[in-house]
Design brief:
It is an enzyme of class 1 (oxidoreductase). Its EC number is 1.1.1.133. Belongs to the dTDP-4-dehydrorhamnose reductase family. One of its GO terms (cellular component) is cytosol. It is a single chain. This protein is α/β, with parallel strands linked by helices and 287 residues long. The termini are far apart. Strands 2-1-3-4-5-9 form a six-stranded parallel β-sheet, sandwiched between helices. A two-stranded parallel ribbon has the order 6-8. A two-stranded parallel sheet has the order 7-10. It has two domains: 172 residues, NAD(P)-binding Rossmann-like Domain (Rossmann fold, 3-Layer(aba) Sandwich); 79 residues, UDP-galactose 4-epimerase, domain 1. The relative contact order is 0.15. Helix content is 41%, strand content 14%. Helix 4 runs parallel beside helix 5 and helix 9 packs across helix 10.
């Protein structure tokens, strides 16, 4: 497939954290395209006549999904259905960004593309339904599973890395508590977009795990953040029950890929993210 497909790619949810790394195609946000509205979605997609659609628009707040499961299903399942129908109608490749939360989290080993899905909480269930929809409706699709996504820098990052940095900014911060009994495979949004570009241009099809390489706890990530930022702060390991979150995450949501071997280690990706997108701003603030 030729490179021009990227110029004719629509990216939903392009104003989000991952969307900030998109440097190609036709970027649309919720104001331009509400994916929960089927008629509007079909109209806009028909107008652009894309050759591919990267569907980033989603509700990724796990705790909000647990508090309001109908909203989670509305955005993540019905919204994905609408985009998949529109993609099929215009003959576009459907690229759906999913999650390792579609697994049950009980395995001692990282999950591969061939492992059985069995989501245990509403976020994972709503994203899993999206996967089913894409597989059933689309003739040409990529399902890209990710985990622990980070990126976006100071303007877009509202996830884990940003929350830790905001704690470190406080003058009286001497200790940070972080979970050390559950495991993930972090995904740098910049790397994810580069991997999707590669797979689209290769005309790949099927399910791919696109997290960065390796397995870690949130505790491990905090240790790495403090190391890169040069802070003298103690990291206190705690178990998953400490924060009493609405959604009970899987004890193991880490991933490995049997079909994609171009990802770099999560440590290298996180260090690049911190050095290139956070450190310059923090230095300006006399951090």
């Amino acid at each position: 497939m030729d490179d021009n497909i990227l110029d004719k790619t629509v990216i939903t949810g392009a104003n989000g954290m991952v969307g900030s790394y998109v440097d190609f195609g036709i970027k649309v946000n919720k104001r331009l395209l509400d994916v929960t509205d089927l008629m509007e979605t079909m109209k806009i997609i028909d107008q652009y006549q894309p050759r591919a659609i990267i569907h980033l628009a989603a509700e990724t707040d796990v705790d909000r999904c647990e508090r309001d499961p109908m909203y989670a299903y509305f955005v993540n399942a019905i919204g994905t259905y609408n985009v998949a129908v529109a993609a099929q109608k215009v003959g576009a490749k459907m690229v759906y960004v999913s999650t390792s939360a579609v697994f049950d989290g009980f395995s001692k080993d990282p999950y591969s593309e061939d492992d059985k899905t069995n989501p245990q909480y509403f976020y994972g269930r709503s994203k899993y339904i999206g996967e089913v929809v894409v597989r059933d409706i689309s003739d040409d699709y990529i399902i890209a599973r990710v985990c622990g996504v980070f990126g976006g820098g100071p303007k877009k990052d509202q996830k884990f890395v940003s929350k830790i940095i905001n704690q470190l900014k406080k003058k009286d911060c001497q200790e940070i508590k972080a979970i050390n009994d559950s495991f993930i495979s972090p995904t740098f949004g910049k790397d994810l977009i580069n991997h999707l570009k590669y797979l689209i241009k290769k005309d790949a099809k099927g399910i791919f795990h696109l997290s960065n390489k390796g397995v870690c706890s949130r505790y491990d990530m905090v240790v790495k953040i403090i190391e890169v930022l040069g802070k003298d702060v103690k990291v206190m390991p705690v178990d998953s029950s400490y924060f009493n979150l609405p959604a009970q995450r899987g004890m193991n949501e880490s991933m490995v890929s049997k079909r994609f071997d171009l990802a770099r280690d999560w440590q290298k990706a996180l260090e690049e993210y911190l050095r290139e997108e956070w450190l310059p701003t923090l230095k300006l603030l006399r951090y």
